[in-house]
Amino acid sequence: MSISDKASIASPKFIGDNVVIEENVSIGKGCYIGHNVVIHKDTRIGENVFIDDNTVIGKFPMHSPASALQEAKSPQPAVIGNNCLIGAGVIIYRGALIGEKVLIADLATIRENTEIGDFTIVGRGVAVENFCKVGVHCKLETNAYITAYSELSDYVFIAPMVTTSNDNYMARGKERFKYFKGVTVKKGGRIGANATILPGKVINEEGVVAAGSVLTKDVPARKIYLGAPAKYFRDVPEEQLLKNQEEFKK
């Protein structure tokens, strides 16, 4: 175990074997820190946070000279809100801001300069790339991929194996550097299993992309798009709208 004498840890529930906590880390009371956890310098962790084995928090990003994305300059420390649950083998980068009561399941990755809102679930193996924003009460299910420069509003549902993209030029030509753009899913939008969303596409309020679809155009509010390429299928049923969901009225 290696804990810096410049770290602040308030009444932990448990600290496992081989834990590394670097300088200027702040950890609130009642936290559980599993075996082999590494918490990098300056990270701020709230109260009653559970961190499972082999997880890394506050990792500094690496940048390849060949990358089309801009290098993040001096990202802020990672921040984890109160009452979060963080699974085993998770990597959360420096510059990530995690709200309260967030669940981040095993093997997920949260990159730098990314925000995750309160009560959101990030499923097993999900990757949220850099410069993304995810709202409150979202659900990102197993092995979904959220590409860089994407924005998911509140109450968004992303099913397993969804793929989003941000480069229409597929890594060829200098023009691509001008047009990088992730996807936008507005409040209550939903994407079905194994769907693919092309760069820059917008799913408007409570719009739906059906499972297995390839989205090549924007989805209007409260419409369902289906197919490859996806086309209008029907309106979202009234009983599925957010205003009719009892769990969201609490």
- How many β strands by DSSP? 33
Indicate the structural class: mainly beta
Specify Rg, calculated over alpha carbons.
19 Å
Question: What's the CATH H-level homologous superfamily?
Answer: Hexapeptide repeat proteins
What features would you describe in this structure?
With 250 residues, the protein is mainly β. The chain has a single domain, classed as 3 Solenoid (UDP N-Acetylglucosamine Acyltransferase, domain 1). It has no helices and 33 strands. The chain has strands at residues 2-3, 8-9, 14-15, 20-21, 26-27, 32-33, 38-39, 44-45, 50-51, 56-59, 79-80, 85-86, 91-93, 96-98, 103-104, 109-110, 114-116, 121-122, 127-128, 133-134, 139-140, 145-146, 151-152, 157-158, 163-164, 184-185, 190-191, 196-197, 202-203, 208-209, 214-215, 223-227, 230-235. The strands form 4 sheets. It has a 12-stranded mixed beta sheet, with no helix packed on it. Strands 2-5-8-11-14-17-20-23-26-29 form a 10-stranded parallel beta sheet, with no helix packed on it. It is globular, with a radius of gyration of 19 Å.
